[in-house]
Amino acid sequence: MSTVTKPLDERLVESTIGALELFGVYLGDRLGCYEALRPAPGGLTPPELAAEVGIHPRYAREWLEQQAVAGVLAVDDAAAGPDARRYRLPEAHVGVLADPDDGAHLRPFARMVAGIARVLDDVVDAYRTGGGVPFARYGQDMREGQGAINRPAFTSALVDEWLAAAPDVVAALRAGGKVADLGCGQGWSALALARAFPGAEVWGVDSDVASIDDARALAAAHGVHVRFEAADAAELAGHGPFDVITVLEALHDMAQPAAVLAAARRALAPEGSVIVADEAVADTFGAPGDEVERMMYGWSILHCLPASMAEQPSAAIGTVIRESTVRELAAAAGYSSVEVLPVDAGFFRVYRLRP
Q1: What domain count does the chain have?
Q2: Does residue 347 sit within a domain?
Q3: Does residue 272 belong to any structural domain of this protein?
Q4: Based on CB atoms within 10 Å of each CB, which residue in 87, 276, 301, 351 is the most buried?
């Protein structure tokens, strides 16, 4: 049975359980519980976990029981005494919860949802006034969650799969080209580009100062050289020309996406390309939608649309950016060619724009 064909009361009960369980993951994330459980193949008892991560034993016990009841953790002997039970992180769940580079790593969703929860009153006000909620207002949880949820794809698939579908782009970067990553956030994509193409000059550009601070710290920690700048895309042309400009999971969030693409075009070298990765939603609106469409609209009503409307005037695209919209934006920005690259990018669709 499709989820949306279930009775609505059942769906809301399931959603409530899901939301509470996601906040349980949030607790495990913030407290370091999954990192403590991962290297303990024999599992940990509640007192052991409490001592390992520095929390109260009673809270440790309740969290471990909840995680086991939810099927997140395994318990060796459910009939043992409450403080004698040993809880383990199953190997099948390590990637999802404890390996930040794994393609299945979805723990950051909990951070992102927590960031939204903190500003729900602001979102309600924005709906009433027609204003917006600035990205910075969603705070550290949203910023770090968004960076972490994109990290696996940006760290591996960006170079090995997405750019590999455009061999001349790869050749330009291998030859020591110049690349700008617009809307770079915490910088995982720019770091991946710098690692893959050590002879290239890599810039990371974002308007959010806190994200650029994070990116600079990550670059230093990983020993990778990237020039990170908190700047407006309009300033990019003065630092070009760039052989490649990337806009990864960021175009739909921009208040003026056509203007940003136009600025990128002006900053390109004559044979340069803009690589855009954005949501792989359906070609047209339909209701009810599949799970991807439902999730993207969920992010849109609570975060992406309010964040983009915080700056006026705004194109107010929201998360659900369809292929036709990307093509319209590219045409308005003066591009002559828009190609969807033949790659399976999961939640993303990857475009190549040429002047």
Answers
A1: 2
A2: yes
A3: yes
A4: 276
d(CA 30, CA 141): 10
DSSP 264-287: HHHHEEEEEEEEEEEE---SS--S
3-state helix, strand, coil in the chain (%, to 5): 55, 15, 30
CA 93 to CA 100: how far, in whole Å?
12
CATH of the domain at 162: 3.40.50.150
Cβ neighbours of residue 256 under 8 Å, at least 6 residues apart? 311, 313, 314, 315
State whether residue 228 is helix, strand or coil. Answer: strand
Task: Look at residues 52, 76, 97 and tell me which one is the last residue of a structural domain.
Answer: 97
From 82, 97, 112, give the residue that closes a domain: 97
Cβ proximity of 274 and 265 under 8 Å: yes
What is the mean predicted confidence (pLDDT) over 54-61? 98
Count of CB atoms situated within 10 Å of the CB of 223: 7
- Encode pLDDT of 159-207 as tens digits: 999 999 999 999 999 999 999 999 999 999 999 999 999 999 999 999 9
Summarize pLDDT for 85-137 with one digit per residue, the tens: 999 999 999 999 999 999 999 999 999 999 999 999 999 999 999 999 999 99
Q: CA-CA distance, 135 to 146, in Å (whole number)?
A: 11
Domain that holds residue 76: 3-97
Within-domain flag for 125: no
